[in-house]
Amino acid sequence: MQIRGLLLLLVLILLAATTEAGKTKKEKAKKDGSKCEDWRWGPCVPNSKDCGLGYREGTCKDESKKLKCKIPCNWKKKFGADCKYKFESWGGCSAQTGLKTRSGILKKALYNAQCEEIVSVTKPCSSKIKSKSKGQ
Asked: Subcellular location, in the record's words (predicted)?
């Protein structure tokens, strides 16, 4: 009988542990006691330099919070880390400027960020000529 009791206790402990582990981040975030639903989030501010780990401040009525965030160091700083765009293919090389151009349409604005609807980027034309594979 004691072995059955221990097995039952073990099963209950495992069940409780998996239930807690299965909760989403949103469910865990609700435990902070805040009943406010209209949070306003500021931009991600890196801890040092202009990219890397940082924090984002949020306010709602009289409450304020800080969340960890990250700005990728290879990200186009012109657009900000909170604006996600879907870009078309690179256009042809302009002989006058020596640049290629492509535009992107706003796909997602995180944390209610102020983002431009359409952006345009340029890069220098490649000076390398790609050779075709000779394998037949």
From this structure: Secreted
Give CA–CA dist 118/3, Å, rounded: 67
Report the largest interatomic distance among the alpha carbons of the chain, rounded to a whole angstrom: 88
Q: 109-119: string of b/e by CB count within 10 Å (b at 16+)?
A: ebbebebeeeb
pLDDT digits over 61-120, tens only?
888 999 998 887 766 567 777 888 999 999 999 989 999 999 999 999 888 888 899 999
1 in helix, strand or coil? coil
- 35-73: which CATH topology? Heparin-binding Growth Factor, Midkine; Chain A (2.20.60)
Q: 105 vs 78, 94, 116, CA distance in Å?
A: 15, 22, 9
pTM over 0.70: no
Residue 6 phi/psi, 5-degree rounding, is -65, -40
